[in-house]
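In the lab's daily routine, each protein ends up as an entry in a very long ledger. A line of letters takes care of the sequence, but it says nothing directly about the fold. The three-dimensional part falls to structure tokens, numbers that each stand for a local backbone shape. The outcome of that step, for a single protein, is printed below.
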Amino acid sequence: MSHARLCYTPYVKEKEFINKVHKHLPKTIYRWKINDPYHGGVPDTYYSGPSNHCWIEYKYTETLPSRSTSKIKFNLSEQQRIWLKRQKEFNIFVYAVLACKNQVYITENFDLKFITLKEFQKESIPFTMFVKGLTNFCLGETND
């Protein structure tokens, strides 16, 4: 009898992270996990609420390097960079998110190829804060 081995690719972990985000969002926020094999560059998700809407391209890494100067690749494809930059030029809210476990780094710099571990640790926010920020953005709520 052979044993099947599970293979958790970066895509699977990214999909799990997106599902985690969606489970923590209020039902009043429309969320769309996009899987479009025919139109390259389209971000992973679209979110909307009564106050705002945005597109987010997620990238996920399971582990972080140990040295503060080590580089963490952002891995946006050229098609993704073009799509995101074009929408930003049209004043559409678009973001790229790099996540690792419960830390989230958000950027609008779509030319970014990598960040250092030190940058990730300094500029990332906790998962709960990311979800709260996305919720407030879409629903127009404030942190009073």
Remarks:
- The longest strand covers residues 53-60.
- Residues 10-24 form the longest helix (15 residues).
